[in-house]
# Entry
Amino acid sequence: TFSIQADKPTAKVSPNMWGVFFEDINLGADGGIYAELIKNRSFEFAQPLMGWKKIGETAPEGTFLVLNQKEKTNNPRFLRINRLTGAEKLGLQNEGFRGMGIKQGLRYDFSVFYRQIKPGVKLHIELVDTTGTIIGKGEFSPDGEQNTWKKQQVSFHATQTELKAKLNIWFEGKGIIDLDMISLFPEDTWKKRPGGLRADMVQLLADMKPGFIRFPGGCIVEGRELATRFQWKKTVGPIEDRQLIINRWNTEFKHRPAPDYYQTFGLGFFEYFQLAEDIGAEPLPILNCGMACQFNTAELVPIDELDEYVQDALDLIEFANGDVTTKWGKLRASMGHPNPFNLKMLGVGNENWGPQYIERLEIFKKALNDRYPNIKIVASSGTDPDGERFDFLNQRLRAMKVDFIDEHYYRSPEWFLSNTSRYDSYDRNGSKIFAGEYAGHPKQVEDGPSENNWSAAIAEAAFLTGLERNADVVEMASYAPLFAHVDGWQWAPDLIWVNNLHAYGTPNYQVQKLYATNKGTDVIPILSDGQLVSGRDSLYASAVIDHNQKEIIVKIVNHNAQPVEGMFNIQVKGKLASNGSHTFLTATNLNAINTIDQPDQVSPQTRPIAIEGKKLNISLVPYSFHVVKIKMQ
Ligand code: AHR
# Structure
């Protein structure tokens, strides 16, 4: 029997308790949520023609030249097509990011920056399927002034759906033309924004109603070395001026997308803020603290050269919140958002540690607190929640009175099950916890990923009862990483998997979503024999009231191989409605997963339940997670 004490709230639930962690890992941004279909559109990858192939007849020497024009500082390279005789059938093919996902009947917008050196070259654009059959085409007659760069677009519709299409560009006529920023976008981007994001992927985020979105990572914030750290200023303004860098995840792991993994920053800081606003999430940017990844080079900026990094943080707040007369507020307005983004918190460093981190964080904290006292600071903590380094760091961060400590844990499902009481005895005063990256990692399938199976998801569901119960300490939580492409990933498990056409939520996604969409406003005790329900008899539970919806929400995990008859007594001042709803997640076995072909194998079911006075009975099937909602009258 469970006793729910709805008349004794113990803590407030933060309105942005359950959020998402975004990083460009596993083709999360380029090749993922950023809907650009052309790989290496500006020829700036290490090898300028990476992703491109010459097609057609043998080109005479000097037909295709990669030129490098220094005054185009951020995007110096472009391609010169030198058709001297105009006789040969010559073209270029782009392979996309593991191919291009194309949908029948949809409009595709091809655009290019060009400069006619000697007018006379016409472009024919073709989408082809894996057999080479044309599934969409357009033509393009440059009409720009000679020797002047111009952007032009041509749109066409696809005649067939194809998972791994490619794009051909054929050149006809005699002349010389320069090309750069060759781009192809589908019309069905999120909110139909030209050059925007993949709508199905954003929709999955929006459906979670996340309280915050942390961006842009993860380790990419740090970079392998400082030169390739994430610098937000290089990701805003016109996209043709955004300077790409190699992705820190380019050369990692067995199933890596390397060596062609770059950050082109078409999804830059403006777009991240816009995404946060679109899905109703608080933006939580994380910035480099003057330290490269400590798992790699551990390169440090000397303390007396930290100013530039601190200034980046101050300027970011101005970019997000400053009025249009400020330098960075003006840039935001020029990009289409004169109103502030209302940034409230900022992370300094990701998984940085040691006295070097504390030293740098102190400088950031002073500068940020002095200038923007209302901006909350999220400080980074370690990755080993059972280790001494973690304890040492947390003590130092608490002593500094940082607003949030960002704790990460990638552990076995067993660890999650045995740590549901982790925050029960945490210090209730001072710094709050941001559980910024966590995921249950089941044993790796031979030569494959560690899977997003039900054993991990149900263990996370149990662990999250502990976070919810301790909502006075834990104010934000997010699973990580967020996205992975089935043909290009280096880290698993991940919350959402995609191919070029489809996206699905894992069982872990379903768990996160059930928490995020049932977060309530106040924690209330749920007890069994007067004790917390936190692992005894393999049961885990937490409960909240939602004062806005006037309902009690109970979450309970049965981690037994047998069903458990749950009897609930509800202590509440007023009356309860006679019916409520019971949503549950379970699976045929602990190894069950969702896939592209079977995305709903582990997905929630909801049914009505009867409440007798202040009692209700629910059968908790083996290995199941339940969300029970009861209306208060
Ligand atoms: O989520 C994957 C990586 O795990 C993140 O980039 C990093 O912060 C952590 O080590």
The two ends are 23 Å apart (CA to CA). The chain has three domains: 2-12+524-632, 20-34+191-518, 52-186.
